[in-house]
Amino acid sequence: MRRIYPIFVLFVIWGLWWPGKAGAITVTATPGSARVGDTVNFNITATFSSGITSCTLQINYGDSASWFTLGTCTTTPCSFSTTHAYTSSGTYTIRVQHDPGSCDLAYPPDPPDPATTTVNITPALTVTVTLSPASLRVPRGESSLWHLVYNFRSSTAAPVTLTSSRGYFRLGATTLGTVPRSLSVTLRGGRAVLTENLTVPVAVLERALRRGATLITYERTFTGPVTVSTRLPIRIVTEATGGLRIRRLELYFENRRAEITVPRHFRDLRAYARLRYSGSDLLRGYWEVDGRVLSYVQRHLTYSGELVLESPRIPPLPTYEPGTHLVRFVIEDPPPAFELPTILYFVTTGESRVLTLRLISPANGTSLTSEAPEFRWEGLNRTSLYLVQFFESPDKPPVFSAYTRSTSYRLPQPVLRRFFSPGKRYFWRVSGFDSARSLVAESPIWSFRLPVEKTYVPGEILLAFRSRRFSSGLLRALTERYRLSEIRNFSLEALRLRVFLLRTPDPRADIPALVRSLSREGGVFLAQPNFVFRTRSEPLRARQAILDLLGVDELHRRYLGQGVLVAVVDTGVDFRHRDLRDRVRLHLNFVPKEGYRPEIHGTAVAGVIAASINDFGIEGLAPEAELLALRACRELVPGEPPGECYSETLARALDRAITEGAEIVNLSLGGRVRDPLLSRLIEKAAARGILLVAPAGEKEPLFPASHPAVLAVGMRTDSEADIIAPGEKILTTFPGDRFNFLSGSSMAAAATSGLLALALEKYRGHLPREKMAPLPGSLCALENRLFRSGLCREDTLLNLSAGKRH
Questions:
Q1: How far is CA 72 from CA 66, 109, 539, in A?
Q2: Mean pLDDT computed over every residue of the chain
């Protein structure tokens, strides 16, 4: 073996060197099967068996007689790559060879020469898509929901997957908004159907209208093996000429309630459907009893209005079967954007009677003391489910209903604030059902009154001393004499006061009497309750074109509120919102035991005043004003606009606004009492030339708007207002880069603050007295006086005029 091994190595080396060693050409195609028009990649390698100076390779793609030069090899091995697209289907043979006339070598490549491979070309893939509906007519001034259906067809039965990452609202080449929702579809057997629920936002419509356009498009591009696009024309129309939309549906029987009991074979039972709608088109629907269609309804509705439909007399609502029956009016077209209501009727057998449920609490006619009242009744063995209903009047449909298996029900805070008014009288009743959902018991109707809103925090007092005269001994003497304990204290630099928040040992103590006694004590500058204030707003689902009303686009060509500092004393402003993050100079929290947090009401007010012009969302009245976000109020229910503030928190926030140099202070809040401490801060702010704006009471005066130094803003002529301003259905900013609608005098006050910020920029921080006094009555008139613009017509505010003068 030791002798054989060197000999074997010599044979290997000799074999590699020997000129007769075979060379070759290889060619591969990727992919081996493609469609007409697709690109096919070819990789070629040539190995030569001898030393090589140069040798040219050429290729024939099989779809013609032509040969194409790949390149010249000067080393071995050498490689080339090329591409080719076929214009018709078939199987093609590709050949690669050396050019005999151009190779300077003793030994050309050995076979295969030419080298061959094949590709299979199938017909081109085509996909088409049609969109239903083919176009939209959307009403201006409100968001609308539409159901889109995409129908895809392809030229192959093989699976094809297409994806669209987002949709675009466009005006020509300008993007007005996006829908960041991905859609994906897989075609099988050459077809597929895809649906999309599309919301056309108000902000998109507004951007188009500001550019003078009433026709935009919604576009999507689907990509995959092929690319297809859809383009949906959207015409912006007035509310009356827009597509039909059902805004509200109310069902009831002849007793105006959502339930009724009738005897067996009763012949005259009727149900009614009250519809509120906008736009014009064909309404298609049907009456349904226990899931079975009773009769179909078709009505052509025009413009906007209200329609009452009656269940058919033939066939009537069936009453031959005892028990509970459910009635619905089902709307097929246009599809409603809300859940359809259900009402019920109970058919008695005549052999059994409905028992009486005994109500327990709250006592009939009582005034409730709890802000989360609990309603209790006596249970019956036969009942497994109870229906609790609340009414404004016994002869009207319920304002709220709920089912429960318990013998008690507690009204949730969000329901209380949305459907009930403090201090108002309401009625309630309980119905009991057995396991077959048959009515077996019913209570009498009792009444109750909700508690009025508290005007001050029980058991708390604010005690203020002049800073230079304060002594800890005096405070100790007073707290011991009146058995008070300190909660916390703070200083008001603008007034040079030291303020203490104190607590009584008994939360039910007579606070007004205690305040009167403390006010008479020597060394005490001021004593008062810790009053409660609330933000003034409610959520709605439409909007009013306030920017168009005031002609803001023209104003913004010259004034944007640049350099004007506005303090928003409210719930927390979302200073990270894309429309507000460049506007908020400082954000501070004054609510004890809580950190700063973004909340609905404060964010909404800030957006009306100063939302940035940044191709996102909305546009504030003063889009370059700076904001102080001073959180002095807290949301009563997380995620709901109503907020609650206190004398202590408002005083600290107002003091900070003064010391920070705010030029406008927006106080979109109010209470029923005049606050002495806040009054002094308001007077101090006014003496420094600060403009203070607050919502006026619509039915009674509210503080701080009732203070002579505060500009009181209302929405109606019968309000206690200096200025009447639009405040209904305002689209504005919500926390988390969202937008929604709010209505109320809070929004009217914010609009006024925004307009004043523009005026302060024009007059360089000092409004001439003759421009403000006497006040002209409406925001339109004030704008025309301040800017001499004539952009806002008085009749667009429905001839509103102010109801109060200072």
A1: 18, 14, 77
A2: 85
Q: Which CATH architecture has domain 245-348?
A: Sandwich (2.60)
In Å, how far are 158, 297, 364, 507, 737 from 292, measured between CA atoms?
Answer: 42, 15, 41, 59, 45
For residues 98 and 50, the answer to whether their CB atoms sit within 8 Å is no
Q: Contact, 249 vs 329, CB < 8 A?
A: yes
C-alpha–C-alpha distance, residues 531 and 524, integer Å: 19
**Least confident among 186-200, 202-216, 410-424, 426-440:** 410-424
SS3 107: coil
pLDDT at 397 exceeding the cut of 60: yes
- Does CATH place domain 534-797 in 3.40.50.200? yes
What is the SS3 string spanning 46-64?
EECCCCCCEEEEEEECCCC
Q: Which of 619, 609, 802 is nearest to 711 (CA)?
A: 802
pLDDT band at 303, cuts 50/70/90?
A: low
Q: Which fold has domain 21-122?
A: Immunoglobulin-like (2.60.40)
CA distance 633 to 638: 13
Domain spans of the chain, in order of start: 21-122, 127-237, 245-348, 355-449, 456-530, 534-797
In CATH, the architecture of 355-449 is: Sandwich (2.60)
- Give the torsion sign (CA, 456, 458, 462, 463): positive
| Closest by CA position to 163, among listed 176, 144, 150 | 150
Identify the pLDDT of residue 414: 61
Placement of tokens 């005096």 in the chain: 474
DSSP string, 257-326: SSEEEEETT-S---EEEEEEEESBEEEEEEEEETTEEEEEEEEEE-SSEEEEEE--SSSPPP-SS-EEEE
Residue 425 sits at φ, ψ, to 5 deg, of: -85, 135
Q: What's residue 794's pLDDT?
A: 56
Question: Please, which residues bridge with residue 40 across strands?
Answer: 84
**Token pair of 253, please?**
């029987």
Question: In terms of Cα–Cα distance, which of 50, 34, 53, 54 is closest to 42?
Answer: 34
Helix, coil or strand: residue 218: strand
User: Is the pLDDT at 512 greater than 50, yes or no?
Assistant: yes
CB 757 within 8 A of CB 783: no
- In sequence order, the 6+-apart residues with CB closer than 8 A to the CB of 694 are 666, 667, 668, 669, 670, 702, 704, 705, 710, 711, 712, 713, 749
**What b/e readout covers 761-794, taking b as 16+ CB neighbours within 10 angstroms?**
beeeeebeeeebeebbbbbbbbbbebbeeebbee
117: how many CB neighbours lie within 10 A of its CB?
A: 18
Could you tell me the two tokens for 601? 């009401």
Topology agreement, domain 355-449 and domain 456-530: no
The vertex-486 CA angle with 482 and 490, nearest 5°, equals 125
pTM above 0.70, yes or no: no
Strands of 523-663, DSSP E: 526-535, 538-540, 565-570, 584-589, 626-631, 633-635, 643-646
Show the CA angle centred on residue 29, arms to residues 28 and 31, nearest 5°. 140
Architecture of domain 456-530: 2-Layer Sandwich (3.30)
CATH number of this structure's domain 127-237: 2.60.40.10
Residue located via tokens 């998109």: 204
